[in-house]
Amino acid sequence: MNQELKRKRFLMLSAVAVFVVALLVLYVLRTTLITVLFSALIAYVLIPLTTLIVRPMPWRESRPGLSRGIAVGLIFAVSVGIFIGSMAIVIPPTIEQGEKFIEEFPTFFNAARGTIEEWIGDHRELVSDDLRAQIEEILANMGRIVVEAAWGVLPRTLGIISSTFALVIGFATMPLLIFYMAKDSRQIGSALPAPFPKAMRTYLVDLAKIADRTIGGYLRGQLILALTIGIAVTVGLLAMGVPFAFLLGVVAALTALIPIVGPFIGAAAAILVTLATAPEKLLWVAGLYLFVQLVENTFLAPRVQANVLNLHPIVVILVIILGGHFFGIWGIVFGAPLVSMGKDVVRYLADEWDRPPNILNPTDGAEENTSDIESQFDSEAIE
Predict the structure, then answer these.
(1) With contact defined as beta carbons under 8 Å apart, do 339 and 311 qualify?
(2) Where are the beta strands (DSSP E) in the chain?
(3) What is the DSSP letter of 161?
(4) Are the beta carbons of 208 and 23 closer than 8 angstroms?
(5) Consecutive 10-residue runs of the chain (383 residues): their mean pLDDT?
(6) Residues 188 and 43: beta-carbon distance below 8 Å
(7) Which pLDDT does position 202 carry in this prediction?
(8) Sign of CA pseudo-dihedral 238, 241, 247, 248
(9) Taken in order 175, 180, 183, 186, is the CA torsion positive or negative?
(10) Residues 6 or more apart from 250 whose CB is under 8 A from it?
(11) What pLDDT, on a 0 to 100 scale, did the predictor assign at position 63?
(12) What is the pLDDT of residue 237?
């Protein structure tokens, strides 16, 4: 029994080592494999939807490849329609407003600063000299801080683009990659652990389930929340007649991908624009963002995210800061779910460390468990 327990521990640690090396390889090759990684991410998000469409098909058992092909084809058709509609309705004004915002940012910032200083002047008796001096200092430094922060993150973020030609070719192949990855996800899932010993595959499948529960659940939830927030903010700002509504909606959606602090960043951009262009609507804009945030935290996030991270907000904020400093946008978006996954892996190792192995057939179950990696999205993600 002692030898079998040692062997089990060795296999568990080996599986963790394989998982960590795979993540490091993906990060090192992120520039070269950027389109492959994005295709895999999109296909990964689409797998639960593909499974939902396949379930009612009567021939799904006899012709699984055909069933998944039809499901993915339907998803692609709908996606193309949404993309064309976005190109016609959302993207042109967003690009136009983005160019105008970048061009006039100094003017907007000075106008917003002037509005705040005017308010302070109108209520001078309510604001002490020390507080007024601190506010003026913060306003004076805010523009420099924003610019320096942007230039600090952008070089790491834009470093993912190695060459324009390679990027164009890569994005041209993305639809095919997404189609085949979503259609043949089961075959890909069963093939990934195949090169490793049967006894190790059980632990690789367990680690894959942990990754799906944390990273997969987090990414799917964040994308749903980001889309919902972006639409709500855009519609609300358009109804109030706030300039750059499409651009601010896109910013709100993108910053919603950043846990904890993301919504505050999106709201800050809207408040800056409102102070500069329509200060009389500031309370309405702030109320809109507050309402969207309350709805997200009260109704959407608990149902969509289901506490997939299970991390204290302070830990999440520290991870975002450190991740953004060392890894750019990759660390900001993926840092928190990776830390959550690492915590769950440590808990898994602690639970399994002293548990006696099945000495009667230590490897027989590995082949059967390997099939779990094919269906883990079908069972866990849908539930």
Answers:
(1) yes
(2) none
(3) -
(4) no
(5) 80 90 84 76 80 82 80 80 70 77 74 72 62 60 52 48 53 76 79 85 88 80 85 92 89 84 84 84 91 82 65 82 83 86 90 73 44 46 43
(6) no
(7) 86
(8) negative
(9) negative
(10) 90, 94, 230, 234
(11) 79
(12) 92
Are 377 and 212 within 8 A, CB to CB?
A: yes
pLDDT score of 166: 55
Smallest Cα–Cα separation from 312: which of 289, 334, 339, 292?
339
Tell me the residue type at 373.
I
Which residues have C-beta within 8 Å of that of residue 3, sequence separation ≥ 6?
none
d(CA 65, CA 71): 10
| Residue type for position 13 | L
Q: Residue with structure tokens 């978006």?
A: 333
- Per-residue burial over 302-319, b = 16 or more CB atoms within 10 Å of its CB, e = otherwise: eebbeebbebeeeebeeb
Find out whether 175 and 352 touch, Cβ atoms under 8 Å. no
Q: How far apart are CA 217 and CA 240, in angstroms?
A: 35
CA atoms lying within 13 Å on the CB side of residue 81: 5
Of the candidates 10, 11, 346, 348, the one whose C-alpha atom is nearest the C-alpha of residue 202 is 11
pLDDT of residue 17: 92
Residue 186: per-residue pLDDT? 77
Q: Name the token pair of 169.
A: 């070719």
8 Å CB contact between 18 and 204:
yes
- Record the tokens describing residue 195, joined without a space: 């090169």
Model pTM score:
0.66
pLDDT of residue 370: 44
In three-state secondary structure terms, 49 is helix
The residue written with tokens 């963790």 in the block is: 16
pLDDT score of 382? 42
Which residue in this structure is represented by tokens 């490091």?
24
CB within 8 Å of 134: residues ≥ 6 apart: none
